[in-house]
Design a protein that fits this description.
single chain; mainly alpha; disordered C terminus
């Protein structure tokens, strides 16, 4: 995701909850279904401890400490940071957040899809020096799936090797 796209996203956000949701998606690579159901007990300091709904894998994902501090200032809804309405069904929350984000960004960002935050985080982790195996573990996917996820974006990061098992950048 380009800097221009991020600026467009931030300028379109209408509330602190929306802004923090985007920040969580950007830094954590969580799927919407996992991010929208975050609760304070899901954190170990500034690391998100999640059992991903899709594959039941436990992951510990670091986020910036200042982002965690901002989350702690939010009023909780039903014990959740980002719950919309009263339903605690993850598919209802996932659909609600997809709609919110699409309504906010699709007009100004052609091809916008919230899952791109996950791909962007994967590429950022690879560019920072993590191996494909380490990134795949954070994403709770096989290294080959991590390479497939990162490949379309790797061309935008010169010198980034997104092949399966890449050990260096």
């Amino acid at each position: 995701m380009s800097k221009t796209t991020l600026i467009t996203i931030h300028s379109a956000l209408l509330s602190e909850v929306y802004s923090l949701t985007v920040e969580i998606l950007y830094h954590s690579a969580l799927r919407i279904s996992d991010a929208c159901m975050l609760q304070p007990d899901d954190f170990d300091g500034s690391r998100i401890r999640r059992v991903n709904l899709k594959n039941q894998e436990t992951v510990f994902i670091p986020i910036p400490p200042d982002l965690k501090s901002e989350l702690d200032k939010l009023p909780l809804n039903g014990g959740y940071y980002f719950l919309q309405g009263q339903s605690e069904k993850h598919y209802t929350q996932t659909d609600a957040w997809r709609t919110i984000l699409n309504d906010a960004f699709k007009k100004d960002i052609p091809g916008f899809h919230a899952h791109r935050f996950r791909h962007t985080a994967a590429v950022n982790w690879l560019a920072s020096g993590l191996t494909m195996e380490e990134v795949a573990a954070l994403l709770s996917v096989a290294p080959s799936e991590g390479a497939i996820m990162a490949a379309p974006y790797g061309a935008k990061a010169p010198g980034l090797d997104v092949s399966e098992g890449a050990r260096s950048l």
